[in-house]
Amino acid sequence: MILIGENLNITSSVVGEPLKAKNAAAVQAMAKEEAQAGIDVLDINIGPMRKGGGELMEWAVKTVQSVTDKMLSLDTANMDAMEAGLKVSKNKVLINSVSLQSSRIDLGLELAQRYKADLIGLLWSNEGMPRDANERALNTVNFVYKANAAGIANERIWIDPIVSPVSVEINQVKACTEFLGMLGEIAPGCKSVAGISNVSSGTPVELRCWLNRTYMIMLMKQGLYAGIVDGTDKDLIAIARGKQPEVVKLVNGMIEGEKPNIASLPKEMQNYARTVRVLTGESLYSHSWLEV
Amino acid sequence: MAFEIPRTTYSGKIREVTAGKGESALTVGGETAFPFYLFEGQMPHLPRLAMEVYDSPPSDWPEAAVEPFKDVINDPVNWAKKCVKEYGAEMICLQLTSTDPNGENRPADKAAEIVKKVADAVSVPLIVWGTANHDKDVEVLSAAAEMCRDRNFILGPVEEGDHKQIGAAAKEFNHIIAAATPIDINLAKQLNILLGNLGVPDDKLIIDPTVSGIGYGIEYCYSAMERMRIAALTQQDTKLQFPIIANIAREAWKTKEARISEKENPKMGEAKRRGILLEAMSATLLLMAGADILVMRHPDALRLVKELIKDLAG
Question: For a 10 Å CB count at each end of chain B, is N or C smaller?
Fold first, then answer.
């Protein structure tokens, strides 16, 4: 699986300020940390920044690529900033993202074509967030149709089904999981990408890793191609690289219907097992889900 | 092949919680099926109707809401007596609005004295309600809990921000907690877990999911309560298997639709009828969603809802 590191982010408590202030040392340190941890693609997120967005993205791309050859994913709603980043990138870039909204899609596709970039197809349409797996499928078909018409082959499209926080709406979490299993048939050749950490948005910070890792395993089981993840979570990366097969086995077993005696497991495995229960909707989420 | 009526498979039961003391004690909860699904399970205790009493005369009620209490509105003790004797209130919900630090700011010990007087005057269980100001509610509800120890009141609203202090007082002086969260099933479950961790016994806890009236988001309340019952009864979610209290009267009567006079807008029709129906219909919806205790205001609305419960329980 391809891991996209989310840590170079303007909202990050670690590099947010340095990024805004164009402090190269701090930004490069984070980029190197992610690369060394085994991250494949570095996401650079400057948010929707309007004023000075182009200048900042150009600076960030140059700054990061001077310390690593990893592929970059450029993350901004400001398409001028996106273009400024694309212009100075040495390697192929992933555009993060192009939504299906009519105000955005044409320009996004045009940029991808002009700069020979891959792109994340965000299944957010004029109607907003898709409500279930079927609406995700419909949006995928519409997106791929438009992208193909613009000359972009399926292989360059990374579909993002939109991960929702488990503390907000479990049915949306389930719909996202379900949809991923359908994607291969709906859009052969398209890749998939999921913002894994969204699932734990709103959860106490120190507990988020359990939801992130478990949900990643569940999506991997559905064939997930790439995950946007916390590049500082070593266990998560180890799981993605097949180095913790016992955890994957437990999670997959439960998805297939096994009912382990949770109390008899070691504490860490209990955490994974309880997390599967909340992410499948078997048990209702609360901030104390690991304790009950 | 004969047609088979689909049936829900239930795996859980709502806990029974008894409020009040001795002969006047009342039990709520105990359901083994969705609300009034008597063809699938039992409702051993039908929902109970409490009536509101305020510790200082309300200044912002529409005339129709004041009218039944005109003679007692300055006197919470006689107000409570009238609700029980004349209007058939099964519980009294004493709203301690005078303790609001942004209003009259009545001190905790004075408020507790009023609570005691009301409790002594009526033979039904008491629900004692603060102002949702955490610091003040801790003082007021703790003082009332201590002054009336062992009388098994329902104390609310207990929120995450004050659950430790009020929870400790309820435990020590033997009262019930109404755990309040803002229309969010995950947060409701979390607060119940926290109260459990604190040592509040399972038969001393009820859920206040926060409700609103028709036209003001009642569908969200309905959905949250419905999901609580689905989790409690079909998913063995032990942290949601508690009775539910719905403090609906004040929500229904503060709406523009209940307050506007016929003179101001003749198209709206008679104000009294409108207010009563808004209260009764809001209460009806919450009954369908799983309320075990409804806090009501107008005696006519209470009568309508009581009849409905009788019909449904037929």
Answer: N
CA distance B131 to chain A (A): 26
Q: Provide the pLDDT for residue A292.
A: 86
CA separation for the pair B179, B244 (Å, rounded): 9
> Which CATH number do you get for residue A40?
3.20.20.20
Task: Output the CA–CA distances (angstroms, integers) from residue A190 to A102, A144, A153, in the order listed.
Answer: 21, 9, 8
First-to-final CA distance of chain B: 32
In sequence order, the β-bridge partners of residue A122 are: A99, A160
Find the helix or strand (DSSP H, E) in which B296 lies.
strand B293-296
pLDDT tens digits along B270-283? 999 999 999 999 99
Note down the domain range covering A182: 2-240
Q: How far is A172 from chain B (nearest CA, A)?
A: 15
- Is A267 contained in some domain? no
- Give me the pLDDT at residue B45, please: 98
Tokens 């791309």 map to which residue? A61
Residues 6+ apart with CB under 8 A from B25: B18, B19, B125, B152
**Distance (Å) of CA B281 to CA B249, B284, B286:** 11, 5, 9
Placement of tokens 């003040």 in the chain: B136
pLDDT in the model for residue B85: 98
Closest residue in B to A289 (Cα–Cα): B190
At residue B255 the predicted structure's pLDDT band, cuts being 50, 70 and 90, is: very high
Q: With 90 as the cut, is the pLDDT of residue A57 above it?
A: yes
Confidence of residue B266 (pLDDT cuts 50, 70, 90): very high
- Can you list the pairs that A232-235 forms with residues at least 24 positions away whose Cβ atoms lie under 8 Å? A232/A7, A232/A33, A232/A34, A232/A37, A233/A209, A234/A37, A235/A209
B126-170 pLDDT, tens digit each: 999 999 999 999 999 999 999 999 999 999 999 999 999 999 999
B:207-236 residues touching chain A, CB 8 A cutoff:
231, 235
Give B-chain residues touching A288 at CB under 8 angstroms.
190, 193-194, 197
Q: What angle do CA A137, A3, A47 make, to 5 degrees?
A: 75
Determine the pLDDT at residue B291.
98
Residue A67 lies in a domain: yes
Q: What is the CATH number of domain B39-313?
A: 3.20.20.20
Residue labelled with tokens 């504490």: A267
ipTM of the shown complex: 0.82
Q: Once rounded to an integer, what is the mean pLDDT over residues B292-311?
A: 98
Give the start-to-end residue ranges of the domains of chain B.
Answer: 39-313
B179 to chain A, any CB pair closer than 8 A? The answer is: no
Q: How many CB atoms lie within 10 A of CB B96?
A: 25
Q: Is the residue at A79 inside a domain?
A: yes
Q: What is the largest CA-CA distance in chain A?
A: 57
CA pair distance A180, A221, nearest whole angstrom: 10
Across the interface, do B235 and A282 touch by the CB < 8 Å criterion? yes
Confidence of residue B1 (pLDDT cuts 50, 70, 90): confident
> Count of CB contacts below 8 A, A vs B?
28
> What residues contact A31, with CB distance under 8 A and at least 6 apart?
A8, A42, A63, A64, A67, A68, A70
What total of structural domains would you count in chain A? 1
Residue A48 has pLDDT above 90, yes or no: no
